[in-house]
Write a structure and sequence with these properties.
Largest sheet: 3 strands, mixed
CATH superfamily of the largest domain: K homology (KH) domain
Strand order of the largest sheet: 1-2-3
Number of helices: 6
Structural class: alpha/beta
CATH class of the largest domain: Alpha Beta
Low-confidence stretches: none
């Protein structure tokens, strides 16, 4: 699937790649948070020692930053994004992620922001149609 990014998002990707020396696969910018998908094996490099690089980037962008590590296996990628997932079912281009009841609110996020963002990544990277957190 082709991804169309606006100028601001492209600029943010460029800045974070140069700043961290990592390869960014995708980026979603919301009103409160910038979500980056970093190439496999580069999570530690983008975060930096004790989170120093991310903290500096958050100051620079004046937004919270969340980093997800890419994995070509869709279930592993979802596990990278939702570590509390206990079961992941993929059926007819739909993803059903089961989490413990106590972790559901965190996985869904405020006003469903996390689920919307994860769903967008799943559509853009893997061509999936829907994602439900149960």
């Amino acid at each position: 699937m082709k991804i169309k990014l606006d100028y601001q998002t492209i600029k943010q990707i460029d800045v974070i790649q140069k700043f961290s020396g990592t390869d960014i696969i995708d980026c979603i910018n919301t009103s409160s948070t910038i979500y980056f998908v970093v190439a496999q094996g580069q999570y530690g490099k983008i975060v930096g020692k004790k989170g120093a690089k991310i903290k500096a980037a958050e100051k620079l962008f004046k937004k919270k930053i969340k980093i997800f590590e890419y994995d070509s296996n869709i279930k592993s990628f979802i596990k990278n994004i939702i570590p509390s997932a206990k079961d992941i079912i993929i059926k007819d281009k739909k993803i059903f992620v089961h989490v413990h009841k106590k972790d559901r609110a965190k996985a869904i996020g405020s006003h469903g922001e996390n689920v919307k963002t994860i769903k967008t990544f799943m559509q853009r990277i893997f061509g999936m149609e829907d994602l439900k957190v149960l």
